[in-house]
Specification:
Layout: E1 4-6, H1 21-36, E2 39-44, H2 48-54, E3 58-65, E4 72-78
Length: 80
């Protein structure tokens, strides 16, 4: 019921990972959300990013399985 910033698809080329690019992109988006005094929201269909996004203050709010054999999703909310 309140405005939120949504972090869309964020992917870094595997050969460029662990160089800080992804963190810089997430931090930039979170700084915009903080300026707006809004929560941030994202979802992922892989378990590995859950811990990664937790480093930025995100927490799993809920989980769900998509119908018809679709993937499991983790919905995460963060407050800058």
């Amino acid at each position: 019921s309140e405005p939120v910033w949504t972090l869309g698809i964020l992917t870094v080329e595997p050969s460029e990972q662990r160089g800080g690019i992804g963190s810089a992109l997430v931090e930039h988006r979170l700084s915009l959300a903080r300026r707006s005094r809004c929560a941030s929201f994202l979802h992922t269909s892989r378990p590995e990013p859950v811990g990664y996004y937790a480093r930025f203050g995100f927490a799993v709010d809920s989980e769900a399985d998509l119908p018809d054999g679709g993937p499991h999703l983790w919905f995460m909310v963060g407050r800058g």
